[in-house]
Amino acid sequence: DGEVSYSDDAGDSFATLDNAGESNVHVAFDSYFGDNGVVYAASDSIYRCSDLEEGKWKDLDAEEEYFGIVLDNAAGNPMTDKDTGGVLYAVYDGGMARVLGAVSNKIEDYLINGAPGEGAFTIEPSALRICDSGNNLLWAINTLEYDRSKGKLLF
Question: Is the dihedral of CA 34, 36, 37, 38 positive or negative?
Fold first, then answer.
C-alpha cells in the first residue's frame, strides 16, 4: 500500500513516512546515506526522500511498476559523491531503469540493450541484486518459466 516506516533507535520506535506509491514498496539507501540522508523507494514509480524528518517523497517520474531497487557501492565508483548520490538501478517487468547522480536527477536511462526480449523481472521481494564486492556485477532475476532440457523459455 505504499507505506514506509523507519527506526533510528534500533527498533524501539518507528516513524512512518508519506506513502510512496500504491503498491508493494522496495526501499534502498543512497550509497552516501551516512552523509546525505537520502532514501529511495520503488513501487508504481521511483521516489526519493531527502529528509526523513519531513517524510515527503519526490516522484522521479518513472513510468513502470518496479520490483527491485539497488544503488552502486560508493567505494567502487569514483564518479559519485555525497552531493550527486550513487547510481540507482531499478527493475520493472521487462527491463531496468538507471539514474546517474540519483540525488538530483530523474529517470533518464532504461537499460534493455542485450536483455532478452522475453523478460519478467517481477520476483518479490527483489528481482535485483548488486555484487557486494564491487560494481561489476548486477543481477536481475527473470521469472518466466524456463525448460532446462530444451534450453529455452516456455511460452
Answer: negative
